[in-house]
Amino acid sequence: MKKSLTILTITGLAFFGNVQTIAAQAEKAEEAGFSLQLLKTKFIEGGPGFMGIVLLALILGLAIAIERIIYLNMASTNPQKLVQSIEDALADGGIEAAKEVARNTKGPVASIFYQGLKRVGDGEGIDAAEKAVVGYGGVQMGLLEKNVSWLTLFIALAPMLGFMGTVIGMIGAFDAIETAGTISAEVVAHGIKVALLTTVFGLIVAIILQILYNYIVSKIDSIVNGMEDASISLIDLLVKHKK
Q1: pTM of the model
Q2: Sign for the pseudo-dihedral over CA of 42, 43, 44, 46
Q3: Cβ(110)–Cβ(95) under 8 Å?
C-alpha cells in the first residue's frame, strides 16, 4: 500500500512538473507573439513614409549581408591542408600535378596558388610567381570585400532616416500646436510618437546590420590572413622544389 502511494505521489509530481513546464513554454510563446505583434503595430503607427524607407534599408542591407556571408563561407578553405596537398603533388608529379590540385580546389587560396604555379610552369621563375601571387591576391581580396561598402552605407543611412523622421514628426507636432492655438497632450502626442518611433526603428536596423557587418569583416580578415600565410608557404615550396 505504501509502495503504491509512493508511486502515485511521484507520478503526480512528475505530471505536475510537466504541466508547469508546458504552461511556462506556452506563456513564453504567447509573450513572444505579443511582442512581435506589438512591434508590427508600432511600425505601422510610425507612418508609411520614413518607416518604409527604413524597412527598405533593412531589406537591402540584409540581402547584401546574406550574400556576403554565403560567399565567404564558400570561399573558406583549409590553407594548411591545401599547402600539404601542393607539397605532395610537387614531390610526386612536379609543377603540372600541383597545378592540377590547385585547379580542382575551390576558394581564393587555390586560385592564387594556380597563378603562381602557372608562372613557374611557364618558365618565368620564382620572382614572376611571387609577383603573380601578390597581384592576384589583391584581386581576390577585392572580390571578398565586394559590396561591403554598400552595407556600411545602409548602417549609416538607417539611423539618419530615423532622425529625419524625428525632426519631421516634431515639426508636425508644432504645426498641430499652431493650428490648435493651445498646447495639450492630445494635440502633440501623435507627432511626438511618430518622431520617436522612426528613431527607434532606425537604430534597430542599424544595430542588426552592424552586427552582420562586424561578422563579415572578421570573416574577411580571417580568409586574408590565411591567404597571406599560404602564399608565403607556396613561395617557400617553389624555392625548395627548384633546388
Answers
A1: 0.72
A2: positive
A3: no
